[in-house]
Amino acid sequence: MTVTVKTEKATVAYGRTVRGPDRKKYRPGDEVELPVAEVKALRERGFLVDPKAASVKRGNGPEFGGSRRPAVRRVGE
């Protein structure tokens, strides 16, 4: 008798890494296929993207180019 395990595809969350059943590392944005119970547990812990939750917009930080450089100002002098 064979047991069939339901699997689900999920996307790895930003800043996380997941090791799949094939021992391969999946990085942020990669899709991994895992058993449904594991997907649920990893979503609760923030390792997988929750499709029902609102996504957080992330930027790449400030950009400086050419003559624009960050300025350091001393306060109180």
What would you say this structure looks like, in words?
Residues 54-77 are annotated as: Disordered. The longest helix is centred in the middle third of the chain and has 9 residues, at 36-44. The chain has one helix at 36-44, and strands spanning 7-11, 18-19, 25-26, 31-35. It is elongated and about 80 Å long. It has 77 residues and is α+β, with helices and mostly antiparallel strands. It has a domain at 7-44. The strands form two sheets. A two-stranded antiparallel sheet has the order 1-4. A two-stranded antiparallel ribbon has the order 2-3. A hairpin with a 5-residue loop joins β2 (18-19) and β3.
| Helix share bin | 10-25%
Secondary structure tally, helices: 1
Strand order of the largest sheet: 1-4
What low-confidence regions span 5 or more consecutive residues with pLDDT below 50?
none
What string, H for helix and E for strand, traces the elements in order?
EEEEH
Tally of extended strands? 4
Which sheet architecture does the biggest sheet show? Answer: 2 strands, antiparallel
Shape: elongated
Class per helix and strand makeup: alpha+beta
**End-to-end gap:** 81 Å
State Rg: 21 Å
Strand residue content: 15-25%
Structure summarized in a few sentences:
With 77 residues, this protein is an alpha+beta fold. Helices cover 12% and strands 18% of the residues.
